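Reading a protein record of the kind used here takes only a little practice. The record below shows the convention in full.

——
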Amino acid sequence: MDDGVVIKIKSSVETEGALVVACFPSVGMVSSIVAHYLIDTLKLTFVGGVSHPKLPPLCLVQDGAPLPPIRIYAGQPICNVEGCDNLILIMSELQIPDPLVNELVNAMFEWSKSAKTASGILLDAFSKKGLTGGPEINSEPMIEYEDTEAIDILGIGATPRCRKLLKKMGILLVEQGVLRNMTGVFLGEGRRRGLDIMAILAEADPRFPDARAAAELISHLNELLPAVELDDAPLIEEAERLEEQLKMMMETHLSAVDGGEPSAATSSMLYG
C-alpha cells in the first residue's frame, strides 16, 4: 500500500466477492445524495475509513460522532453482478486535491486486491449542456452527448464485460469525453489492470443539489440490486422541496434588489 495512505476496515467485514461502489463529489452533489440514500435504504453500516496526512484536517460530525472525510460502509444486499456477495460503499463529500488522487486510487486498488473484491461501480454526474458549476468546474467531467428532454444517464466501462452490462441495463455509452479526479483515474487504472470497473453518470444541474438527477441514477441501479427495490420517490420529494426553497430565495433576492426587505421566515430558508 502506498506510503501515507491508510485504509482501515473492521476485520469482521466480509470483503471477498464484494461489489465496491464509490461516490466522490460530483456535479450537483449527485454522488453524495445517492450515497446517503444507499446507506439508509440498504441499511449499510459504517465500517472504516481512508486517511492521508495531506488531506484537509477536518472530520464530519453525524449524530454526535466524528467520522473521517473518506468513509467506508458495508452491507449484504443481493446484487446481480456475477460473484457479488456483499456491498462496500466508499464515499466522501470532500473534493480530493489533485496531487493526492493517483496515490489514493493506487492504494485503494492494492487494498481491493488483498480484500479480493469482485468489481467496482463509480457513481458520478456531468453538467447539463449550457450550464456551468462553481469553483470546482475544472474537476467536472466534460462529456459529449446527445441532449434529450429527459435526464440523460451515460456509462463508461473499463472492460468489454462492463460495457456489455451497461448496454444490458439500457445505459448509453459515452462516445467521447474527459473525466477528471477520482472517477477518471479509477477508470483509467482499472482498464490498465483489466479490472471490471464501470461508471454511471447522470446529467445534472451544477448550480444546486440535483436530487432529480440522483433519483434517475438510482432508478438504473435497481437491475444491479434486486433484493431491495430502490424507491426514488423520496428523492423526487426532496427535489421539489429544494426547488421551492430556491424559488423563495430568488424571490427574496429580487425583493432586496427592488428595495424590499426579506422576511425572517424567508431568510431562514437560506440556512436550511
